[in-house]
Amino acid sequence: MRLSQKSVAALFAAVTIAGTGGTIVSAKDQNLTGAGSTFIKNLFDACIPEYNDVSGDTVSYGGGGSGAGRTAFINGTADFAATEAVFGSAEKPPADFTYVPLIAGPVAIAYKNSNLTGTLQLSPVTIAKIFAGQINTWNHPEIAAENPSITLPSNNIVVVYRADSSGTSTVFAQYLTATAASVWTKAPSGTFANAMPAGAPPGSIAAPGSDGVANKVASTEGSITYVELSFQKENLGDGVKAASVKNAAGAYVAPSPISAAAAVAALPAGNVDQNTGWIRPDFATAVPNAYPITALAMGIARKTYSAKNDSVRDFFNYILNTCAKAQAPTLGYAALTGNTLKFAQGRAAGISQLGNPALTTVKRNQTLPGASLLNAAGLSGVPTLRVTKGGNVCRVVNKTNIGGTRAGTCDVRVTVGTTNVTLKVTVTK
Amino acid sequence: MTAVTTQPSAVRPLQPWKLTTAQRFSRFATVIAVVAVAALLVLVSPLAGLAGIALVAIPLQVAVSVARSGRHGSVAARNDVATSLIGSAFLILMAPWLSILYTVVRRGYEAISWNFLTDDMRVTAPDAELGTGGIAHAIVGTGVMVLVATAVSVPLGILSGVYITEIRGRFTKLVRFIVQAMSGVPSIVAGLFIYSTLVIYNKSYSGFAGALALAVLMIPTVARTAEEVLKLVPEELRFAGYALGSTQASNVFRIVLPTVRSGLVTSAILGVARVAGETAPLLMTAQIFLATKGNPFDGPLASLPIVTFSFFQNGADNAVTRAWGTSMVLLVLISLLFALARAVSADRRRSRR
Amino acid sequence: MAVAVEQREVVTKKPRVDKVLHGVVTSGALASLVILGSIAGFLLYRGFEIFSDMGFGFITGSTWEGAGAEGEVTKYGIAPMLVGSLVLSLIAVAVALPLSVGTALFVEFYAPPGLRRVLVSVLDLAAAIPSVIYGLWGLFVLRPLAIGWAKSLNEYLGWFPLFRVDATFFDGSPFIGGLVLAVMISPIITSVSREVFSQTPPELVDGARALGGERWSAIRHIVLPFGRSGVIGGAMLGLGRALGETVAIYLVVSIVFKINLQMLFTGSGNIASMIALKFGEASPYEVKALLASGFVLFIVTLIVNLIATAIVNGSVRKASK
Question: In this complex, is the C-beta atom of C73 within 8 Å of any C-beta atom belonging to chain A?
Answer without folding.
Answer: no
